[in-house]
Amino acid sequence: MAALAINGGTPTRRRPWPRWPQWDSREEQRLLDTLHGDDWGGFTPVVAEFEQAFARHHGTAYGIAAVNGTQTLVAVLMAAGIGPGDEVIVPPYTFIATASAVRLVGATPVFADIEADTYNLDPIAAEAAITPRTRAIIPVHFAGQAADMDRLVPLARRHGLLLIEDAAHAHGAAWHGRMCGSLGDAGSFSFQSSKNMTAGEGGALTTSDRDLADAIRSRVNQGRAIHGAWYEHPNLGTNMRLSAWQAAVLLAQLERLDDQTDRRMASARALNSLFAEVEGIQPMRWDPRADRHAFHLYMVRYDERAFGVPRAVFQQALAAEGIPCSTGYPFPLYRQESLGPAFARAAPCPNAEQACREAIWLPQSLLLADPAEMEDVAAAVTRIRDHRHELARLALE
Ligand SMILES: Cc1ncc(COP(=O)(O)O)c(C=O)c1O
C-alpha cells in the first residue's frame, strides 16, 4: 500500500474542501447599497435591521450589535456593574476572551471544570465554585453544542447570579428547541472570520431584559442614555459600535445560517457513525437536548494508547492527508499568565487538562461538504492507523 502523505505518498483527499467564508450576490448587493448610502457608521438603519433580525432569529426581544465577541462580553459585564472584588465563573477550556473579558472589567475569573465528554462547563463544578463574591456564570456553548442549561439556569437563579451565554460558537444552536442566546440573561456572539456567520470581525448581544438591553447599548455607545442628548454620557462606556458594512454582510450571512447548520449536523452525524468503528477515536457526546448543534468545531477524543501514535504526530499526518485539523488549546486558561499568575497555583481542572491532551478539532467549513465526503476523513484516519509503523520515526524526532 502507498506511503502516508506525510512520508511522500499521495494525500487521501486531493479535492479542496468548501471555502470559508461563503458569500454570493446577496452580500454584494447589500454592500453596494451601503456604499451608495449616505452613512457607513453604526447608526445606519442597516445596523438596526441586523440587530432586529438576529434577535428575532435567536428568540429574544433585543439585539445589540458590537465590534466583536470579546467586547460583547465586556459590555454585558460593564452593564451589570461587575468589577473589582467580584468573581465570575468561567470554564478553563475556551478561547481566552471568555476569561479576559472578566479581567478587563477588573473582576476575577474563577475556573470551574468542564464535562469530560462534551467539553462544556460542568454544572456541579460551577456550583462548587460559587462564593459570596460570585456575580455571574459564563457557560460557553462549546463547539456549538449548548451547555447543560437545564441545570445552569436554575443554579444561577437560586444564587441570584447573572447567566451570560458565551455563544461565540453557537449561532442558530438550540437546547430543547429554544435558541442559544435566549436561555440565560444575555447571549454573546462573535462574527470573527472563522465563525459560522462572519463579517471578518463583529459581535452581537441578545437579551429579552429591557433594562439590561438599555444598559448594554449605553456601554456600546459611549455611555449615552437611550434617548439622551448626544454629548451627555451618564455611564462610562466606549465605542463598540458595528459598522454598516459589517451589518450588511451579516444580514446576508444570517439568511444562509439554518441551511448551513443543517448541513453541518448531517456531516457530523456521518462522521459519528464512521468513527463508531474506529478504536482510539471517540466523537464527543451529542446531548439529545442540544437539538440544534451549530458544530463550529467537530471534535473527537484521541486515545494515543489505542492508536499507538502521539497526538501531535497523528494531527500532522491527518493534515498531510488533506484533512484540515488542529489539536486546539495547548493548556487550560488558568495557565495563561496574562490572566494573573495566581491562577497557576489554583486547583487544576482534570477534565480540561485531559481535553488539552486529547482533542482533535475539525473546522466547521469542512462539514459544509456533502455528508458523503466525510468518508474521506474516515479513510484518512484509517490509513494512518493501518500505516502507523511509518510514523514511529517521526514520533522519535
Ligand atoms: C468562545 C469564544 N468566546 C469569545 C470569542 C471572542 O470573539 P472575537 O474574536 O469576536 O472577539 C471567541 C473567539 O473568537 C470564542 O471562541
Describe this structure in words.
It is built from 13 helices and twelve strands. The two termini are 24 Å apart. With 397 residues, the chain is of the alpha/beta class. The protein folds into two domains: 229 residues, Type I PLP-dependent aspartate aminotransferase-like (Major domain) (Aspartate Aminotransferase, domain 2); 140 residues, Alpha-Beta Complex (Aspartate Aminotransferase, domain 1), CATH 3.90.1150. The relative contact order is 0.17. Helix 6 links the parallel strand 4 and strand 5. It has a seven-stranded mixed sheet, with helices on both faces. The chain has a three-stranded antiparallel sheet with strand order 10-11-12. A two-stranded antiparallel ribbon has the order 6-7. The structure holds pyridoxal-5'-phosphate (PLP).
Task: List the SSEs and their pairings.
Layout: H1 25-36, H2 45-57, E1 62-66, H3 71-79, E2 87-90, H4 97-104, E3 108-111, H5 123-128, E4 134-137, H6 149-158, E5 162-166, E6 174-175, E7 178-179, E8 186-190, E9 203-207, H7 210-220, H8 244-275, E10 281-283, E11 297-302, H9 304-307, H10 311-320, H11 350-358, E12 359-363, H12 374-386, H13 392-396
Parallel strand pairs: 2-3, 2-4, 4-5, 5-8
Antiparallel strand pairs: 1-9, 6-7, 8-9, 10-11, 11-12
Helix pairs in contact: 1-8, 2-8, 3-4, 3-7, 8-12
Pyridoxal-5'-phosphate binds at residues 68-70, 94-95, 97-98, 140, 166, 168-169, 190, 192, 203.
